[in-house]
Design goal:
The protein is mainly β. The protein has one helix spanning 3-23; strands spanning 36-60, 63-89, 99-107, 113-121, 126-138, 142-149, 166-168, 172-174, 177-191, 211-227, 230-244, 259-272, 285-292, 323-331. It is built from 1 helix and 14 strands; from the N terminus they run αββββββββββββββ.
């Protein structure tokens, strides 16, 4: 058996397992009703590892929402176009559709023909789609998918190819725990002519800041534990940052040619109430503590709790965002209406 065929077989078996775990019902039980419907139009490109991208739309509670799709392809080879229609289960509010999904493909959808795509996120939203693929692609297909929901009735989502800033590699289960690794990588380079006007109106190393390069990456691990009293989850990550080839435009690293730093970024635990208090709504109460990223309203006053530049480098990329030693209590009340 070839490696590609083996990947496809493993994905198909995993899909059967997920479907069985999601159902846990006998043949006589009625199928659960879908909460929303979704359509997909996109493409994939991979040589062993690659990307999927595209646009979709979701019909939920009488409204249409545009949805951007970004994905991580594992075990794929070649390119293919994708078209799909599916159903969404476990969706109580549209915001829960956002985020990273573990995606498993079966059938011939990614080598030409039709197949099934099943995916689930950490909010227990599940999507099952009938997908048709055209083009040359073999292998397991998408493994991690990220959905980004736009405003109801807004313009169609951007369907152009682009490198996603953050890759979610899907979620794996070990005993009662779910693990999801992530990678966030950024690159930036800049060049200018005659900075500081040859020192006529500047001092120090300003006139040396004619070109420089920045890079940062954040490797993280999310852990989730569903329980009868809600969901416990946590994250730990570290950020590496670099400025090289000279002073940056703000000369924050002085005359040093290269500065680097690796620091702890996220390290927090959180609890969500799920449906523990049904009269308040789904995930009405959220508690979290540790090093974490948050913002208040549009982020004017509280948005970025990290610091870059100087001996950390990456002044323009500014990858660090987490506030240190935070404690957050959030109340999300769902409005309810009753009919006469």
């Amino acid at each position: 058996m070839t490696r590609s065929a083996l990947c496809a077989t493993v994905a198909a078996l995993s899909l059967i397992t997920v479907a069985a775990q999601a159902g846990q019902r006998s043949a006589s039980d009625p199928a659960p009703a879908a909460d929303a419907t979704i359509t997909l139009s996109g493409r994939t490109a991979a040589i062993g590892v690659g990307f999927a991208w595209g646009a979709s739309s979701v019909e939920f509670q009488g409204k249409t929402y545009p949805v951007r799709v970004d994905g991580f392809v594992l075990g794929g080879l070649g390119t293919a176009s994708l078209e799909g229609v599916g159903e969404v289960f476990g969706l109580t509010k549209i915001d829960d559709l956002n985020g990273n999904y573990t995606a498993l493909a079966s059938g011939g959808a990614f080598g030409g023909g039709t197949g099934k795509l099943a995916m689930r996120n950490d909010k227990s939203v599940r999507i099952v789609m009938d997908v048709k693929g055209e083009g040359l692609q073999v292998g397991a297909g998408p493994r991690g998918i990220t959905l980004s929901v736009g405003e109801a009735g807004g313009p169609p989502a951007d369907a152009s190819p682009r490198l996603p800033q953050t890759l979610g590699f899907g979620e794996s289960k070990t005993g009662p725990l779910f693990f999801r690794p992530t990678l966030n990588a950024q690159f930036f380079t800049a060049a200018s002519g005659n900075p500081g006007f040859n020192g006529k109106w500047s001092f120090g190393p300003v006139d040396q800041a004619n070109n420089w390069f920045e890079h940062s990456n954040e490797v993280g691990l999310n852990v989730r534990y569903p329980a009868s009293f809600g969901t416990l989850q946590g994250r730990v990550s570290g950020v590496y940052s670099l400025t090289a080839s000279g002073p940056d435009g703000a000369v924050s690293n002085g005359s040093k040619g290269t500065v680097t730093k690796y620091t702890l970024e996220s390290a927090y635990l959180a609890w969500q109430s799920e449906d523990l208090f049904p009269e308040l709504g789904h995930n009405a109460i959220e508690l979290s503590g540790g090093n974490q990223n948050y913002q208040v309203f549009d982020g004017l006053l509280f948005w970025d709790g990290g610091q870059d530049s100087t001996n950390r480098g990456a002044n323009w990329l500014s990858p660090r965002k987490a506030f240190r030693e935070t404690g957050i209590a959030r109340l999300n009340l769902t409005s309810r209406t009753t009919g006469s």
